[in-house]
Amino acid sequence: MAKKTHRSRNAATPLTPAAAPRTPQKAQYDIVGPGASKKRRPARVEYHGETGRDSRQLPPMARLMAISLVRDACRNFSSARSIIQQIALNVVGTEYKVIIKDPSVKGRENDPTHPVVAAQNWFNDTWAKNPDFRNDNHLFDVNRLLLTSVVRDGDAGMLFDRDFTQSGKIVTFESDQICDPSPLPDGAAESNDGILLDHFGREIGYCTHFSRGKTQVKLDEAHIFPRDPVDTDANMFKLLRMPWRANQGRGTSDMFSFVADMLDIYEMRSKELQSAKVAATMAGMVTKNESDTGPALDDARYDPLAPISDFDDEEHPAVKESDNYNNFETLTGGLMEYMIPGEKFDLLTSNRPNVNGIPFTEHIIKSAGSAVGMARCYSTMEAQTSYTAFRGEMVMTWVMFRYWQKWLERYVQDWQAVRAINFAISIKAIDPLPAGWSKYLAWQHPKMPSLNPLVDQNTFLAALKNGSTNLEQELGPNWKNTVQELITEVEFMREANLPHAMFETKAGAVAGDSTKE
Question: Is 277 helix (H, G, I), strand (E, B) or coil?
């Protein structure tokens, strides 16, 4: 990279500029601002002006604090954890295979000698089972963690290892492992919180570090991964993010918008649980009668000639234990408490937990779920009693799930498959593939579950007859293998002289049999 003469951000330039003076507004408490712990729970994350010098994203330290808050909510509050788990399970799924639908494979889908089929099998059966650079995670878990990092933290880094140990595996970097280098590497005009930019504002590299929580690291301790703005296929590092502004830089999590509400509800619920524990236990307090606190004038302690044995201590006059105490202790199982004269016991009563706490909590959780596209049934994990309402909520939510599935396919899965298969070709693990093979990648993703399978099957059958759908849309890109397995099953049943349900009428007769029922 050639050295540019443009103004650069270096170690002498503060990474987090001081916030400009502003008029305080009652409704704008900052969740990551100074003194937030002394106020009520803040109402928002982003505090700096939308048109300021660094308004493309959160300042580095504020972003790290926001990430910490979201992780706290996901770690300790079950509803926040449920939201991110639902996204991971419904978007990534468990059936994790790639299908290369190259035209040259037509009619030879099950021929392992075909280069495309061999590459497909190598990816699914070998590489995808252990693609993690650091441990033995399956590709399903690697991408599940990458997706949840983007949803929770705003972004994550993904490297195909061709430079560390030439392992051909995926190295992941979380959001708090991406930071500014000091000084800037040659050719970089600016570092935007770990994103290296040229003088045109294009991303030409990324700075990462294995430690966490840093806003700046020394250049000789950092890992700089270049990005070619022209030949993007040669780039081995990808910053995964879901920006919500056109020229933003680092990603911003959708969960930032409701993390304050979630933490508030978490604190309120914790207090309600504690109050319920108190209400479930007999509790009380001891009060002392102030009018009867001092000793009487004829108390033996006022007589200097009285022997010490006349009283037990200097605080209380001696009280002879009654034989009834033993009887009371036996009656109560030995749990008896005695008070000194002048004290009385008042039983405490509690009207907690609040009877309106549950609907209020559900309202906040539904609002939080809507920020990530989840309808009520997914954010609260409670099904509607009405089939129509429940189905409508599922349809609304699955629009978001399909959106994330396409994002995962375009930015993560295809990127990984192309580099893994090209790496396998380079080390001669598989034969070269036909030109343009990477355009035909297809992935198996989860589908919206069926609430009434019979209705859905009849709907699919009607759509199949009128040509508005096909088997691939119903069964996924692996539909040919599914049909092939069905053929094998039918042939086996025929050889065993057993009827197959596919060829039976509703009454159980074999289709085409002229025998009357």
Answer: helix
